[in-house]
């Protein structure tokens, strides 16, 4: 399992491209502009399954959650957060800089890894409210999703149901990706070495978050 995490970290550090983060390929762009509600649903699910910044954050969120009840609570908080800002951002026409919001998403990955490592308690003597943090970062992730849809200049007619369909796809994609992560985590946690490997895994997640932040900030200042 450690080798898998290390490989993930290496891939993320090397191939941080717009197409894999929040970018949309030309084929997907044509599919979305010509397709109906199912096209938006499909692309929402695809975006979440391939959105490694979202998945890294969720990986950190559920890393030390052992009960399905707790997993459900935190994932629901994240889902409600990103659903609110996705719908609000697109329907209200509220624009945020894509580079900056994606940099904050990268920071959310760093934050969660540091939280898992107990850094805040060690440095400041306090433990932030993890539920509030997950919900707040969910709001930020939603704006990240909204910036992608705003790139399409979609017509206002019939926009609301299309955005709802896209968001529904995001939720389904999140469930599918999270299910795979939880299955892998269940096997990993059975290993006697999990406790020792957990530290290295969260350090790698933190490094990946810093890479994402650096990439987006560089894009912001260069662009």
In short:
With 223 residues, the protein is mainly α. It has helices at 2-14, 26-34, 37-50, 52-62, 68-92, 98-116, 119-124, 130-150, 159-189, 194-222.
Give the topology, please.
Blueprint (H helix, E strand, L loop, with lengths): L1 H13 L11 H9 L2 H14 L1 H11 L5 H25 L5 H19 L2 H6 L5 H21 L8 H31 L4 H29 L1
Mean pLDDT: 85
Straight-line N-to-C gap: 39 Å
Overall 3D geometry? globular
Total E-strand runs = 0
Largest sheet: none
Tally of individual helices: 10
How much helicity do the residues have? Answer: over 70%
Structural class: mainly alpha
Low-confidence stretches: 1-21
SSE string: HHHHHHHHHH
Strand content: under 5%
Radius of gyration: 17 Å
Protein architecture, described:
The model is unreliable at 1-21 (pLDDT under 50). This protein has helices spanning 2-14, 26-34, 37-50, 52-62, 68-92, 98-116, 119-124, 130-150, 159-189, 194-222. The chain has ten helices and no strands. With 223 residues, it is mainly α. It starts with a helix and ends with a helix. It has a domain at 95-223.
From the structure above, extract its key features:
223 residues, mainly alpha, disordered N terminus, globular, 10 helices, 80% helix
């Amino acid at each position: 399992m450690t080798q898998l995490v290390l490989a993930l970290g290496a891939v993320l550090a090397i191939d941080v491209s717009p197409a894999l983060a929040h970018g949309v390929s030309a084929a997907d762009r044509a599919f979305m502009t010509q397709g109906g509600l199912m096209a938006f649903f499909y692309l929402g699910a695809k975006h979440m399954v391939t959105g490694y910044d979202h998945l890294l954050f969720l990986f950190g969120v559920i890393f030390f959650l052992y009960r399905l009840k707790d997993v459900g609570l935190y994932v629901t908080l994240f889902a409600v957060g990103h659903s609110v800002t996705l719908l609000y951002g697109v329907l209200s026409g509220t624009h945020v800089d894509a580079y900056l919001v994606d940099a904050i998403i990268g920071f959310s990955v760093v934050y969660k890894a540091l939280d898992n490592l107990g850094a805040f308690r060690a440095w400041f003597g306090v433990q932030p409210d993890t539920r509030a943090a997950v919900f707040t970062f969910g709001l930020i992730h939603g704006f990240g999703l909204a910036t992608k849809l705003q790139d399409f200049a979609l017509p206002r007619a019939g926009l609301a149901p299309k955005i709802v369909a896209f968001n529904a796809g995001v939720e389904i994609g999140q469930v599918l990706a999270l299910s795979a992560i939880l299955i892998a985590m269940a096997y990993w946690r059975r290993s006697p070495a999990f406790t020792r490997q957990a530290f290295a895994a969260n350090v790698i997640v933190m490094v990946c978050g810093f890479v994402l932040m650096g990439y987006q900030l560089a894009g912001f200042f260069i662009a």
